[in-house]
């Protein structure tokens, strides 16, 4: 029944010529925006479906509204980190404006990630892609460039040599702000529960931490690598708190690890912030739900995802897009940070 | 350059006839699985790309590997609830097996949700859809049936009248287990911080709670509705704890609200579990990262998402799929639940 609605019927209802309907429904120039909208409304009302020929034409033109996102993480781990879902929700906020869609895949490794992009691009299912979890000399950048896929990376241009459109946050500046704040409170022994050292932004933070600590004359800070999971964050915190030179403050590379760190401090009978200061990263809602609430380097991850999507659509529609820094995370001081107390007895 | 690779070259490299290559690359019967794989490998190696004709054929055949998922929630809220990302990660685990994809949209309301489905289906971008957040007499079910979209709902068949393939968890049985456990510990005044009362599973839990409490001779339990956010969970907990007849145990409809409840108890100077027992729902990693760890109705949300995806592919490929119950959530008792202490002084 749907197939029987003709262009002519749509034209009659909209009060225009069949030619105008054809232009409007095929997104071609030649009709005004208000007429286009009236025609669309008429087509919608009648349940008009494009003919196979028109559909094939659309397929040839390529999808101009679908973003590809492939994430190389075990599926089970993805649900546990607020970062990705907030990033995706930011992308979706832009897709909502333009009625676009997100094509999402989780894969095991970079090769598979490239293969998925190749297949999506070959089948014209995406207009472009956003790359996350950038590494130094990331294989994907060249691979996607060779395929001709419009690409925006969420990562520091220092990692890409400026060869691709990028959105990024200034991780060095954020680390420096966190450490300066703790130093001002009187902390001299600061440690960090970091992320995956293979990732570019983790390495940037590690370097920045060492540099600012040296500059401020603090003890050389320890960075313990993790896989970003809460369990790994708990384990790293236990290790740091059980060490001979226990830190008086710990900076975490995300928020779920900081939540785990807070629980480990309680396990050890340490009072936060009197015995130990904690600073989280990313600052999802989680940080405001603990007691005490977690001080955090507050990062608008939702806005970061939206910026990545906007930059990609600029690239797709205008064939170029300026790389754009996202706002630098800023310190949100809450109840988990304070001047260090007198050194408690050894545990 | 890619366009110049011919079927004949692929055939030569794979050591088969051009006809076999055509069958293999068009996913038609007539070649063995091992031959098909050899041909695919050869095509991959040579960088073979299907001709436009073949691509249009694939478009006409429709996407048989892409699942549509539309979620009606504000984009910002989505990042905060572990449930969705775990559910999606479960869907992705099935997509990984078959090299399928997920098309994801966040929308504001049900009408928009139906419009997105209509457009995806018209453009043959999905093979079927999974519906979440089912309501009583859900408009979407009839709309998608009318469009002819293979659909699986994640929700109790009691809400759909059995008109559509469903996967669901037995929320009544889970509520009963939680309440019987608390009653066995000696609790008589149990409250619940529930979800959105418009959702079917929220209503089912509310009814089950009242029924089992009456059966066990407990005080009539209060259910406070929320929007599932941590903030709303905190607010509801404060209200319950400040009331004249303070409950000795609270059941939460998700885990982020239970984490918030734990912090509110600390704010009020109440000790968990001596002064107040808490039971979370869904049981993401979060519940094991707090101190004390949260007792929870443990629900394999990842497995639930995988079951929904498998059921949908059954439906797409075999035109029918039995509705399938997911395992009932089971109690994971941890440090946040214990017998009620002596009634403390009023706060």
Automatic annotation (TrEMBL), chains A, B:
SUPFAM superfamilies the UniProt entry points to: lambda repressor-like DNA-binding domains, Periplasmic binding protein-like I
Source organism, top-level taxon: Bacteria
Alphabetized UniProt keyword annotations: DNA-binding, Transcription, Transcription regulation
Domain HTH lacI-type: 5-59
PROSITE patterns with a match to the protein in the record: HTH_LACI_1, HTH_LACI_2
Protein name: LacI family DNA-binding transcriptional regulator
UniProt-listed SMART domains: HTH_LACI (SM00354)
Molecular function as annotated in GO: DNA binding
CDD domains cross-referenced by the UniProt entry: HTH_LacI, PBP1_LacI_sugar_binding-like
Native organism: Kitasatospora phosalacinea
Region (Disordered), start-end ranges: 321-347
Source organism phylogeny: Bacteria, Bacillati, Actinomycetota, Actinomycetes, Kitasatosporales
InterPro entries: HTH_LacI, LacI/GalR-like_sensor, Lambda_DNA-bd_dom_sf, Peripla_BP_I
């Amino acid at each position: 029944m749907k197939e029987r609605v003709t262009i002519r019927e749509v034209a009659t209802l909209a009060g225009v010529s069949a030619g105008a309907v054809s232009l409007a429904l095929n997104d071609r120039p030649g009709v005004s925006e208000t007429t286009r909208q009236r025609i669309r409304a008429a087509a919608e009302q009648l349940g008009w479906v494009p003919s196979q020929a028109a559909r094939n034409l659309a397929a040839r033109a390529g999808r101009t509204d679908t973003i590809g996102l492939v994430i190389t993480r075990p599926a089970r781990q993805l649900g546990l980190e607020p970062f990705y879902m907030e990033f995706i929700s930011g992308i979706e906020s832009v897709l909502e404006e333009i009625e676009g869609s997100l094509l999402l895949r989780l894969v095991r490794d970079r090769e598979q990630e490239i293969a998925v992009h190749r297949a999506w691009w070959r089948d014209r299912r995406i207009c472009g892609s956003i790359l996350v979890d950038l590494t130094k000399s990331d294989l994907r950048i060249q691979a996607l460039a060779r395929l001709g896929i419009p690409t925006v990376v969420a990562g520091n241009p220092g990692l890409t040599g400026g060869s691709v459109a990028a959105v990024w946050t200034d991780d060095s500046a954020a680390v420096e702000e966190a450490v300066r704040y703790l130093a001002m409170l009187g902390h001299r022994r600061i440690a960090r529960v970091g992320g995956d050292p293979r990732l570019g932004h983790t390495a940037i933070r590690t370097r920045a931490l060492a540099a600012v600590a040296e500059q401020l004359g603090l003890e050389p800070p320890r960075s313990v690598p993790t896989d970003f999971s809460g369990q790994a964050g708990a384990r790293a915190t236990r290790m740091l708190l059980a060490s001979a030179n226990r830190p008086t403050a710990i900076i975490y590379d995300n928020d779920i690890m900081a939540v785990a760190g807070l629980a480990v401090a309680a396990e050890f009978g340490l009072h936060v912030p009197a015995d130990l200061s904690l600073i989280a990263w990313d600052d999802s809602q989680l940080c405001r739900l603990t007691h005490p609430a977690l001080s955090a380097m507050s990062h608008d991850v939702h806005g970061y995802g939206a910026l990545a999507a906007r930059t990609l659509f600029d690239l797709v529609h205008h064939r170029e897009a300026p790389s754009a820094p996202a706002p630098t995370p800023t310190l949100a001081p809450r109840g988990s940070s304070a001047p260090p107390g007198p050194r408690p007895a050894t545990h």
